[in-house]
Each structure stands twice: as structure tokens, then as C-alpha cells.
Amino acid sequence: MKHNFGAGPGILPQEVFKQAAQAVIDFNGTGLSLLEISHRSKEFEAVLDEAVRLVKELFSVPEGYSVLFLQGGASTQFAMVPYNLLPEGGKAAYLESGVWANKALKEAKYFGEVAVVASSKQSNFTFIPKDFEIPADAAYFHITSNNTIYGTQLQQFFPSPVPVVCDMSSDIFSRKINVADFGLIYAGAQKNMGPAGVTLVIVKDEILGKTGRAIPSMLNYQTQIEGGSMYNTPPTFAIYVSMLTLNWVKAKGGVEAIEQENLAKSKALYAEIDRNPLFKGVAATEDRSHMNVCFVAENPEHEKPFLKLCDEKGIVGIKGHRSVGGFRASIYNALPITSVHVLIEAMQEFAEKNK
Ligand code: PLP
């Protein structure tokens, strides 16, 4: 058995894989593969409706918000957000808490002025800056809720005088959020929600249509809202698997129940990192992520042998991102706590052998 700690695409529930595999052969007894049915068929429309309904239910999405399933990944949202929200000659505020935030703000520069309110770049993004002001004349304030590469996560969201836009690619559906606190939320699916190829957007309708700019149809949220995420052929398979995963979240007791499980997993792992003399955490303690746990070996020579031990125990995807080094254990929703225990035991065994 494998224990998948990979950062992305990340682990999805085993039962979702089984249901998805069956749907590829014969979708709900139609005698057709999910991959060959029309996106305009009543069967697929029911899938999309259910996926939207589940997002609304799991996050208690208030009235006045639209839920979209788009293509192009979170990286397309880096451009689509300013295209739709940043008026000509206007300004947008960004918090630079990692490379993904940096990529997002670079795209915004194509459309207007960018005010970087704070950055932790100098410390290789080991913490999330909290001491800054959000300009009240900005069109929006962009943040990244979980910095996948560095293992930092916002434990609380900032009060803001302007609409908050949040990249939740690596912690969507991992914890409770109050959608009303945000103007727009986006997330590439491929960590906690589904396969690569679909991107979730939850947008407050009233913030749209204010730029005075002509926007190409595919990149215009309004077109996508009017088309019900079917302006063109949507990524049917990715939406179907997302729907199955959201159903799995619901069956587990919803986002609150998942959040408790995630806290138990991260608490156990950080406790071992802090206890074990051979390893140390990378991120500032107060910003530690409950999704991506980054740590390094005190002695760099221990890195390779520890990875070898992990390999022997079926622990995969644990090598850290090249810009941080060491190890990164991504403990997304579908990773069972038993897998976290296997990793903890491997760390203990390694410490025992290397006393
Ligand atoms: N934002 C965050 C926080 C991410 O972790 C990633 C990918 O890992 C991205 C954006 C980029 O997502 P995509 O590959 O869907 O464009």
C-alpha cells in the first residue's frame, strides 16, 4: 500500500477513483462512457448542477454569489482576476507570501498598478506578513490562503476595506470559511477537489462589470455565469470527479468534520517534527500549514537515507520543493491519519537508527 504525500496533483479518496473508473466504462447504466456523453445531455447537466449545489451547501454560499467551474487552472485566474476587476488606471493590492502570489501579481501588472502591501520574499517565504495596510482605493486585495511550497497558511483572514480575492488552490474544502468575507475565491481542483483540468471560482456578482474594459468571452466571468460554466465544452470528467469528491466531503460530515481530521493529522506530525532531534520545521510556528508540512533534516546528509526509508515504507511524494529542499508532507483531505502515523513511525525509526 502506498501513502501519497504528494503536493499536487494530490490524493483523492479511493472510493472516488473506483466510481470514476466505473463511469469511464459505463456512466450510470447509460451504456455510454462519461467521456463520450454530450455536456448538454440531461445526465451531464445533472452532474454539473449537483457539483454547484454541493459547493453552495458545503460552504453555505450566500445569495449574490456565482459558482463556476472553469478551465486553465489557477494560473489563468491570475490574469482573469485583474482583467475583470482592475479598472483602467486603477490599482490592486497584493500580499506577496510565496511564488504563486508573486506569479499572480505579475499578471495583474498587465492591467494596472499593483501595490504589494508586504512581502516575505527576503526570508524565502517562511512566514506570512501581517503588519501592513490595505489601500482603501484599491480595486481588490489579493491573498493566497495556503502557500503550498513553503508550508505556510493564513490562520485568520485580514479585515479589508476592499473586496478580498483569495487563491485557495491548496486548502479549499479543508476548513470552514465564511464566503461573505470574500469578493472572489478561486482554486485549481487538483489538490483537495478533483483532477487537474477544472478550476473552481466563487464570485460575488456585484463586484463584476466595473472595469469599463472589453473582455474576451472565455475570460469574462459574466459570460461564464450566463453560460452556467458551459459557454464552451466544459471539462466533463474533471467536474464529475470533483462532484464525487464533494459528495465524499459531505458524507464525512462536511467541511467542519474534515477540518477536525486535518487538525489531528497536522498536530501529530508537527509534534513529531518538534520532538525528533533529527528534523526541524521550516515555517514560522504561528503560520504552519495544516495541508503542506515542510521540514528539513538537521544534518543534510540524512536527507537521502531518510527518503530511501520512506520509499521502503511506501511513503511517496515527500521530497520538498526544489526552492525549499528537505521534505514536504502534503496531508490533503483524503490522506488518512493512518498514513500520517506511518510517516511518524518512519521518522522515529530513522532517529533510533541514527542516534
Ligand atoms: N496557487 C497555488 C497556491 C498553488 O499551489 C498552485 C499550484 O500548485 C497554483 C496556484 C497554480 O495552479 P495551476 O497549476 O492550477 O495553474
From TrEMBL:
Catalysis: reaction(s): 4-(phosphooxy)-L-threonine + 2-oxoglutarate = (R)-3-hydroxy-2-oxo-4-phosphooxybutanoate + L-glutamate; O-phospho-L-serine + 2-oxoglutarate = 3-phosphooxypyruvate + L-glutamate
Limits of the Aminotransferase class V domain: 4-336
InterPro entries, A to Z: Aminotrans_V_dom, Aminotrans_V_PyrdxlP_BS, Pser_aminoTfrase, PyrdxlP-dep_Trfase, PyrdxlP-dep_Trfase_major, PyrdxlP-dep_Trfase_small
Localization per record: Cytoplasm
Binding-site positions, pyridoxal 5'-phosphate: 74-75, 100, 148, 167, 190, 232-233
Binding, L-glutamate: 40
Chain positions with N6-(pyridoxal phosphate)lysine modification: 191
Keywords: Amino-acid biosynthesis, Aminotransferase, Cytoplasm, Pyridoxal phosphate, Pyridoxine biosynthesis, Serine biosynthesis, Transferase
SUPFAM superfamilies given in the database record: PLP-dependent transferases
Chief location of this protein within or outside the cell: cytoplasm
PROSITE patterns for this protein: AA_TRANSFER_CLASS_5
Pfam families noted in UniProt: Aminotran_5
EC number, as in UniProt: 2.6.1.52
Cofactor, how bound (note): Binds 1 pyridoxal phosphate per subunit.
Molecular function terms from GO: O-phospho-L-serine:2-oxoglutarate aminotransferase activity
Subunit note: Homodimer.
Similarity annotation: Belongs to the class-V pyridoxal-phosphate-dependent aminotransferase family. SerC subfamily.
PANTHER family assigned: PHOSPHOSERINE AMINOTRANSFERASE
Function: Catalyzes the reversible conversion of 3-phosphohydroxypyruvate to phosphoserine and of 3-hydroxy-2-oxo-4-phosphonooxybutanoate to phosphohydroxythreonine.
Name used for this protein in its record: Phosphoserine aminotransferase
